[in-house]
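If you are new to this repository, start here. Below is one unmodified record pulled from the training split, so you can see the exact layout before writing a loader.
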Amino acid sequence: MKIVVCIKQVPGTAQVEIDEKTGVLKRDGVESKMNPYDLYAMETALRFKQEYGAEVDVITMGPPQCEAIVREAFMMGVDRGIILSDRKFGGADVLATSYTLSQGIRKAGNYDLIICGKQTTDGDTAQVGAELAEFLGIPHVTSVCRVLKVEDNSITVDLDLPMHIETAAIQFPCLITVEKGIFEPRLPSFKLKLATADRKIEWLAMKDLDDRNEMHYGLNGSPTQVKRIFPPESHAGRDMWKGSSGDLAGRLFQMLKDKKFMQQAR
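And here is the target side for that same chain:
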C-alpha cells in the first residue's frame, strides 16, 4: 500500500502581516508550525505503515521554509517528502492549491490512499481535500473519525456527520480527510532525526509539472479573491475589581448589559 499525506506549514502566531494588495498572508520570516490537523492525518498513515507495511510519503506546497515540516515528518517515521515550491504558486486560493497538489501527486507517482487533515488553522475552509480528489478523479469521504477495516482493494471508515455516524466503504485509490480525534499523534523521534538528517527531499516547481500553464496556478488560477482581510484586534487592557461576590456579580451583569451582550429578563 502506498499512502501520501498532504501537510501544510501554518503561522505559529496570530501576529501575521497581511499583504493589502493581494489579501494574502506574508509568510516569509513568520514563526511557523505544522498544521495541527495534519498531525492526525500523518498518524493515521503511520498506523497503516505499522500494521500493513504501507509506504508513507508527505507532500506540501509553500515557500522554502516549509522544509522544516517535512523534516519533522521524517522524525515521525515518514519515508519520503515532496515540496511544491515556486513563486508562481503564491497567493493560491483553495481551488488553485488543490490543483497544484493534484499535479504534484500525479508527478510523484501512483498512490492507493491520500490522507488530509480536516482543515487548516490559517484558512479553515476544509475544501482542499474534496477538491483535490475531484482533480484526481478518485472517490473521497470527509470527517473520518474511525477506521474499521482495511482490505486489499478498499477501506471501511466511520464518518462523523452533524446528526449521526455513517459507515462507508470506498475503493482504492481514494482520498479521506480525518478528524482530530481519530488517533493520538506521536512525538518526533530524536533517533529518527539523526537517521534522516541527510535524507533527500524532492522539490518540484511549475516547470517540473505536466501542466505548465501559469493561468492554472497561484493568483492567476484563483477564481476567488479576498475582498478584505485584517489581523484580529489585540486588547491587553484589564480592570481589577474588588468587593463581595454579590457586588461583583451585580457589577459584571451591569457591564454586560451596558455593552448589550445580554438583557435582563422581563
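Two things worth knowing about this chain: Residues 2-216 form a domain with the Rossmann fold fold (CATH 3.40.50.620). The chain has one domain: 2-216.
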